[in-house]
Input
Amino acid sequence: MISETIQRLHSELPPTVKLVAVSKFHPFESIVEAYESGQRIFAESRPQELMAKVRRLEEMRASRVAETRLSWGDSDAAEAWLSDIEWHFIGHLQTNKLKMVLPYVSLVQSVDSLRLLEAINVWGERNGKVISVLLEPHVAAEETKQGFSPEEILAILADASSYEYISFKGIMGMATFIEDESVVDSDFAALADIFSQCRLSFPSLAPDFTELSIGMSDDYPLAIAHGSTMVRIGSMIFGSRQ
Ligand SMILES: *Cc1c(COP(=O)(O)O)cnc(C)c1O
Output
């Protein structure tokens, strides 16, 4: 089931759209199955769960390497197995949890406050790592304190050079949680608009600011129609979450 869906998505998605497999609440065995089917980018939304899975997969890899050595097998292949997984973080991230996330991920998609952005920059400086981020605007109708206004995003990017340890890669967004497709459509249009406004306003950032992460299991075709470069798909691949 997992492998069929992964293969179908890989063949159906336009080449400009990356598939991010959202493995939250699903066991590491499911991640291995998706990996064996060719999936390389995975995303988690809780720091503890991310860290536990990264460690478990590393243990599996290490024990395969040890077994392969004993049996005079192909140890290069065993070394490579699971080592090219790319982790993204997509959940709300508290500033006291950065050390559980930032060492392991190649992209934090869910930067939703100035406080978090500044804390990531400080962590990057202390640890000598430039962190790639997406900024998360708030467009959905739900009441929430999280997420930036379009004006805040433009102000951050105008000041981008003061975040020495941050690489701004684009925008991540979610549509209103609702069946009504016209609402979802206008939310995606608003997110795509913010994205293109950023690229136009800051041409020097544009070569790196290339990702528009929109679209989940239920709405990804519509997101792609609005120019998504990254779809975050969980339940369609792994089944419903407990
Ligand atoms: C859980 C989650 C997803 C995946 O949702 P599905 O409907 O299972 O595809 C995508 N993005 C974010 C931010 C999530 O938290």
Residues 89 and 108 are 5 Å apart (CA to CA). The beta strands are 18-22, 41-44, 86-89, 107-111, 131-135, 166-172, 211-213, 230-233. The mean pLDDT is 95. The first strand starts at residue 18 and ends at 22.
